[in-house]
Design a protein that fits this description.
Blueprint: H1 2-5, H2 14-23, E1 27-31, E2 39-43, E3 49-54, H3 59-79, H4 87-97, H5 111-118, H6 129-135, E4 145-146, E5 155-158, E6 161-168, E7 172-177, E8 183-187, E9 191-194
Parallel strand pairs: 1-3
Antiparallel strand pairs: 2-3, 4-9, 5-6, 5-9, 6-7, 7-8
Helix pairs in contact: 3-4
Length: 196
Protein backbone atom coordinates (compact mmCIF):
# COMPACT_ATOMS: atom_id res chain seq x y z
CA UNK A 1 0.00 0.00 0.00
CA UNK A 2 2.85 2.39 0.85
CA UNK A 3 4.25 2.14 -2.70
CA UNK A 4 0.84 3.13 -4.09
CA UNK A 5 0.22 5.96 -1.61
CA UNK A 6 3.61 7.60 -2.22
CA UNK A 7 2.44 8.56 -5.74
CA UNK A 8 -0.72 10.23 -4.46
CA UNK A 9 -0.26 11.86 -1.05
CA UNK A 10 2.39 13.90 0.77
CA UNK A 11 5.15 11.62 2.09
CA UNK A 12 4.71 12.72 5.73
CA UNK A 13 1.02 11.71 5.60
CA UNK A 14 1.68 8.09 4.61
CA UNK A 15 2.03 6.59 8.14
CA UNK A 16 -1.18 8.29 9.31
CA UNK A 17 -3.10 7.18 6.21
CA UNK A 18 -1.79 3.61 6.47
CA UNK A 19 -2.91 3.56 10.12
CA UNK A 20 -6.45 4.68 9.17
CA UNK A 21 -6.68 2.22 6.27
CA UNK A 22 -5.60 -0.69 8.47
CA UNK A 23 -7.63 0.32 11.54
CA UNK A 24 -10.86 0.73 9.58
CA UNK A 25 -10.18 -2.03 7.01
CA UNK A 26 -10.61 0.37 4.12
CA UNK A 27 -10.87 -1.02 0.59
CA UNK A 28 -9.34 1.71 -1.56
CA UNK A 29 -9.53 1.82 -5.34
CA UNK A 30 -7.82 4.58 -7.32
CA UNK A 31 -9.81 5.31 -10.47
CA UNK A 32 -9.67 7.46 -13.61
CA UNK A 33 -10.95 11.04 -13.44
CA UNK A 34 -14.70 11.52 -13.09
CA UNK A 35 -16.26 14.85 -14.04
CA UNK A 36 -18.73 15.07 -11.18
CA UNK A 37 -16.75 13.91 -8.15
CA UNK A 38 -13.26 13.49 -6.72
CA UNK A 39 -14.11 10.37 -4.73
CA UNK A 40 -16.89 8.28 -3.25
CA UNK A 41 -17.83 5.76 -0.59
CA UNK A 42 -20.08 2.80 -1.37
CA UNK A 43 -21.53 -0.13 0.48
CA UNK A 44 -21.14 -3.09 -1.89
CA UNK A 45 -23.80 -5.82 -2.31
CA UNK A 46 -21.50 -8.30 -0.51
CA UNK A 47 -21.34 -6.01 2.55
CA UNK A 48 -17.82 -4.66 1.90
CA UNK A 49 -17.27 -0.91 1.89
CA UNK A 50 -15.38 0.56 -1.06
CA UNK A 51 -13.70 3.95 -1.32
CA UNK A 52 -12.68 5.31 -4.71
CA UNK A 53 -10.53 8.39 -5.35
CA UNK A 54 -9.69 9.97 -8.72
CA UNK A 55 -6.11 9.47 -9.91
CA UNK A 56 -5.77 12.97 -11.42
CA UNK A 57 -5.83 14.89 -8.13
CA UNK A 58 -2.70 16.53 -6.79
CA UNK A 59 -1.26 15.25 -3.48
CA UNK A 60 -3.20 17.72 -1.32
CA UNK A 61 -6.55 17.22 -3.06
CA UNK A 62 -6.09 13.45 -3.04
CA UNK A 63 -5.34 13.36 0.71
CA UNK A 64 -8.31 15.57 1.58
CA UNK A 65 -10.63 13.52 -0.64
CA UNK A 66 -9.36 10.24 0.81
CA UNK A 67 -9.92 11.39 4.40
CA UNK A 68 -13.36 12.75 3.39
CA UNK A 69 -14.29 9.28 2.12
CA UNK A 70 -12.72 7.45 5.08
CA UNK A 71 -14.90 9.69 7.26
CA UNK A 72 -17.98 8.32 5.44
CA UNK A 73 -16.70 4.80 6.10
CA UNK A 74 -16.08 5.46 9.81
CA UNK A 75 -19.41 7.28 10.17
CA UNK A 76 -21.20 4.29 8.66
CA UNK A 77 -19.37 1.92 11.03
CA UNK A 78 -20.23 4.04 14.10
CA UNK A 79 -23.73 5.30 13.33
CA UNK A 80 -25.16 3.19 10.51
CA UNK A 81 -27.38 5.05 8.06
CA UNK A 82 -27.28 8.82 8.69
CA UNK A 83 -27.28 11.94 6.51
CA UNK A 84 -24.27 11.62 4.13
CA UNK A 85 -22.79 14.99 5.13
CA UNK A 86 -24.69 15.49 8.37
CA UNK A 87 -23.42 16.34 11.84
CA UNK A 88 -22.08 12.82 12.52
CA UNK A 89 -19.97 12.83 9.34
CA UNK A 90 -18.76 16.40 9.96
CA UNK A 91 -17.57 15.50 13.46
CA UNK A 92 -15.79 12.35 12.26
CA UNK A 93 -14.20 14.17 9.31
CA UNK A 94 -12.94 17.01 11.52
CA UNK A 95 -11.49 14.49 13.99
CA UNK A 96 -9.77 12.47 11.25
CA UNK A 97 -8.31 15.57 9.57
CA UNK A 98 -6.77 17.12 12.70
CA UNK A 99 -3.48 15.15 12.58
CA UNK A 100 -2.98 16.22 8.94
CA UNK A 101 -3.15 19.96 9.69
CA UNK A 102 0.62 20.25 9.86
CA UNK A 103 3.01 22.30 7.68
CA UNK A 104 4.97 19.10 6.97
CA UNK A 105 1.85 17.75 5.22
CA UNK A 106 -0.08 20.79 3.93
CA UNK A 107 1.85 23.91 2.89
CA UNK A 108 1.34 26.99 5.03
CA UNK A 109 -0.46 28.77 2.16
CA UNK A 110 -3.18 26.04 2.24
CA UNK A 111 -3.52 25.52 6.02
CA UNK A 112 -5.60 28.65 6.88
CA UNK A 113 -8.13 27.86 4.14
CA UNK A 114 -8.26 24.20 5.14
CA UNK A 115 -8.76 25.06 8.83
CA UNK A 116 -11.55 27.49 7.92
CA UNK A 117 -13.26 24.89 5.69
CA UNK A 118 -13.11 22.28 8.47
CA UNK A 119 -15.13 24.50 10.82
CA UNK A 120 -18.20 23.42 8.85
CA UNK A 121 -17.15 21.05 6.03
CA UNK A 122 -19.41 20.70 3.00
CA UNK A 123 -20.07 17.81 0.65
CA UNK A 124 -17.49 19.12 -1.82
CA UNK A 125 -14.30 21.07 -1.23
CA UNK A 126 -14.95 22.81 -4.55
CA UNK A 127 -17.80 24.79 -2.95
CA UNK A 128 -15.17 26.58 -0.87
CA UNK A 129 -13.59 28.72 -3.58
CA UNK A 130 -10.61 29.88 -1.51
CA UNK A 131 -9.70 26.35 -0.42
CA UNK A 132 -10.22 24.98 -3.93
CA UNK A 133 -7.89 27.58 -5.42
CA UNK A 134 -5.29 27.09 -2.66
CA UNK A 135 -5.32 23.31 -3.18
CA UNK A 136 -4.65 23.88 -6.89
CA UNK A 137 -2.00 26.51 -6.21
CA UNK A 138 -4.21 29.02 -8.03
CA UNK A 139 -3.72 27.23 -11.36
CA UNK A 140 -6.33 25.69 -13.63
CA UNK A 141 -5.65 22.57 -15.69
CA UNK A 142 -3.38 23.19 -18.69
CA UNK A 143 -5.34 24.87 -21.49
CA UNK A 144 -8.14 26.03 -19.17
CA UNK A 145 -8.83 29.07 -17.03
CA UNK A 146 -11.09 29.76 -14.07
CA UNK A 147 -14.44 31.31 -14.86
CA UNK A 148 -13.61 34.43 -12.85
CA UNK A 149 -10.81 35.03 -15.38
CA UNK A 150 -13.25 34.98 -18.34
CA UNK A 151 -14.12 38.56 -19.33
CA UNK A 152 -17.79 39.42 -18.93
CA UNK A 153 -19.67 38.75 -22.19
CA UNK A 154 -17.06 36.32 -23.57
CA UNK A 155 -17.89 32.81 -24.73
CA UNK A 156 -16.40 29.72 -23.07
CA UNK A 157 -16.79 25.98 -23.30
CA UNK A 158 -17.72 23.77 -20.36
CA UNK A 159 -18.43 20.03 -20.77
CA UNK A 160 -18.71 20.42 -24.56
CA UNK A 161 -21.32 23.17 -24.30
CA UNK A 162 -20.90 26.86 -25.11
CA UNK A 163 -21.80 29.57 -22.61
CA UNK A 164 -21.58 33.34 -22.44
CA UNK A 165 -20.34 34.69 -19.13
CA UNK A 166 -22.61 37.16 -17.41
CA UNK A 167 -22.62 39.05 -14.15
CA UNK A 168 -21.44 37.82 -10.81
CA UNK A 169 -24.07 37.22 -8.18
CA UNK A 170 -22.90 36.96 -4.56
CA UNK A 171 -20.59 34.00 -5.07
CA UNK A 172 -21.35 32.58 -8.53
CA UNK A 173 -21.51 33.74 -12.13
CA UNK A 174 -24.62 33.80 -14.33
CA UNK A 175 -23.80 32.14 -17.65
CA UNK A 176 -26.07 31.82 -20.67
CA UNK A 177 -26.12 28.44 -22.39
CA UNK A 178 -25.95 29.37 -26.08
CA UNK A 179 -27.90 26.28 -27.17
CA UNK A 180 -30.94 26.25 -24.89
CA UNK A 181 -30.77 29.95 -23.89
CA UNK A 182 -31.08 29.09 -20.19
CA UNK A 183 -28.99 30.81 -17.51
CA UNK A 184 -26.84 28.62 -15.26
CA UNK A 185 -24.87 29.57 -12.16
CA UNK A 186 -21.17 28.64 -12.11
CA UNK A 187 -18.88 28.50 -9.08
CA UNK A 188 -15.99 30.96 -9.35
CA UNK A 189 -13.46 28.15 -9.51
CA UNK A 190 -15.08 26.26 -12.42
CA UNK A 191 -12.40 25.47 -15.01
CA UNK A 192 -13.43 26.35 -18.56
CA UNK A 193 -11.98 26.65 -22.06
CA UNK A 194 -12.02 30.23 -23.33
CA UNK A 195 -13.24 30.54 -26.93
CA UNK A 196 -11.30 33.22 -28.78
Amino acid sequence: MKETLIKYIPKKAIPLVEYLINKHQVNLKIVSQRQTKHGDFRLMPDGRMLITVNNNLNHYQFLLTLIHEIAHHVTHQKFGRVQPHGKEWKTVFQHLMLPFLEPEIYPTQILPYLANYLKNPKASTDTDVNLSLALRNGKAEPGKIFIFEVPNGNVFQFKNRLYKRGNKRRTRYECLNLTNKRVYLFNQNAEVLLIQ
